[in-house]
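Justification of resources, computational component.

The compute hours requested in this renewal are based largely on the per-chain cost of generating structure records like the one below. Each record pairs the submitted sequence with a full structure-token output. That output is archived, and it is also reused by downstream analysis tasks.
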Amino acid sequence: MLQLPDNSPQVWHRFFKENKVVVHRFIVREIKKAIEKDLDRVDLFKFKNGHVTYVKREDYLFSLDEAIKAFVAEEMYELAKEAKTVIDSYHINQLLKEVSNGV
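The structure output for this chain reads:
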């Protein structure tokens, strides 16, 4: 989890806008870890006031898709491919769970 020193939404928004690729790389990495550990959510950012921003399992694919869009927009195709690999891992893990649960 990344600790952010400022609570201001304006500061966070500007940081995200100016560092979109870096932020999405971080998000992809953290979601990948969450999938590997079978977590229901991944905590991403903690603000100075204690507020934590997280992504729930049901939103992993949406967040990964947004990362892919950001990477492609910046012509960073290798990063887009990495995010797609994480999506594939998510689907494989879901299938393995279903099989092991007899679904």
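The mean pLDDT is 90. The longest strand covers residues 41-47.
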